[in-house]
Amino acid sequence: MKPIASIKLSPKNYAGLVNLGNRVASSLSGNLNYLTPLPTALSLLSDVASVVTAIGVWGPKGNRGSHADLLDLRQKAITLAQTLKSLSQYVQNTAQTAAGSDYALMAAILGTSGFDVTNHRSPQGILEAVQNFHAAVSPRYNPNQVKLMWKKPLNVITKGNVKNYLIMKGTTAVFSAAVQIGTSTKTKFVDTNYTGAPQTWFYWIIPVNNEGSGAISEVVNVSLFSI
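^ that's the sequence the OP posted. Answer follows.
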């Protein structure tokens, strides 16, 4: 999964924002991975200093300042949080440009930024092919029926990532000549030979999500009797 520069802090976590700001400013200073940070490290340190000053004015518990002092602290903390958010986006874009689709390299570059690095779990990308696609001719079914079964694609993140599966069938092993015979929201499908003669058919499964149709499965061929 794609790594991302993460900020897991509330704007009301004043000390946490100050610590993160100092860490990021120190990590970006002279960092060859990030030559032109925007906002600059100096701008970040200025926002950190403003929050530190406002914390001092607001005072410790039991000796608090005025309501106006609290509002000033909150506004300065929001400004610092916004600066950190802008820098995290700069860091993310820079690391992605440098690493491309090499997520291990991207994570390594992000790790030098001072931000926490987490995995991005959404949105689900284009689905891979289903796993373990096979057919079963069982005594539970008529001789002219076949049960197709498979497992979800490997890159499914959550259960709802697969909207449905397309069931494709052809009279040859050439996929371009196949036609869709149905859909299923489950990982199984029963097909029946109503032609009145024995048939050999070829099947494929295609997973579908919000990105559209995923990868085509391997082909499975089945010979069915007629009744």
